[in-house]
């Protein structure tokens, strides 16, 4: 079996946000060889805006897990860390999103890869650019740097 390259997005806006992100990274190391972690940035809430600011970061790693095994693994970590699902896009002590899994495209109810919102989210594209700006989105066929520039330009219009 060959290890696959994956990118994950981490976010927290409840409790000790920095500690939550560090703990999640420690748990992820059980099954993911972590290659790069971006800086952790403080970001304004996206979507539902009446909630505390987030800390966000992105990491690159390699894993032997299949995409669905990876989803189960990250959901297990969220549960272990006591995450409560208040409502979609609502506050959470930890959120782990699968952004890319190699150049795989998956579109099922349970799992969508690439993450369907990633090209609309500065809090994802900015740290992604920091660690791998040339990675090409397998559906949009643009590098994450191009997606970042496009998003910033569209917000200035
Ligand atoms: N790429 C993905 N990464 C993580 N979860 C995913 C992905 N695609 C689909 N899901 C599904 O989304 C479900 C709910 O995710 P969650 O409650 O974290 O949504 P959300 O964080 O509020 O919204 P968003 O996914 O837009 O950030 C998970 O149980 C999982 O089955
Ligand atoms: N800034 C920011 N906003 C969000 C985030 C997040 O991680 N960062 N996650 C959300 C639910 O997935 C909704 N809104």
UniProtKB/TrEMBL annotation:
Taxonomic superkingdom: Bacteria
Pfam families: HPPK
UniProt source species: Anaerocellum danielii
Protein name stated in the entry: 2-amino-4-hydroxy-6-hydroxymethyldihydropteridine diphosphokinase
EC number(s) recorded for this UniProt protein: 2.7.6.3
Alphabetically ordered keywords of this record: ATP-binding, Folate biosynthesis, Kinase, Nucleotide-binding, Transferase
GO molecular function, one term: 2-amino-4-hydroxy-6-hydroxymethyldihydropteridine diphosphokinase activity
Gene it is expressed from: folK
Domain 7,8-dihydro-6-hydroxymethylpterin-pyrophosphokinase: 88-99
Substrates-to-products reaction catalysed: 6-hydroxymethyl-7,8-dihydropterin + ATP = (7,8-dihydropterin-6-yl)methyl diphosphate + AMP + H(+)
Biological pathway: Cofactor biosynthesis; tetrahydrofolate biosynthesis; 2-amino-4-hydroxy-6-hydroxymethyl-7,8-dihydropteridine diphosphate from 7,8-dihydroneopterin triphosphate: step 4/4
NCBIfam families: folK
CDD domains membership: HPPK (cd00483)
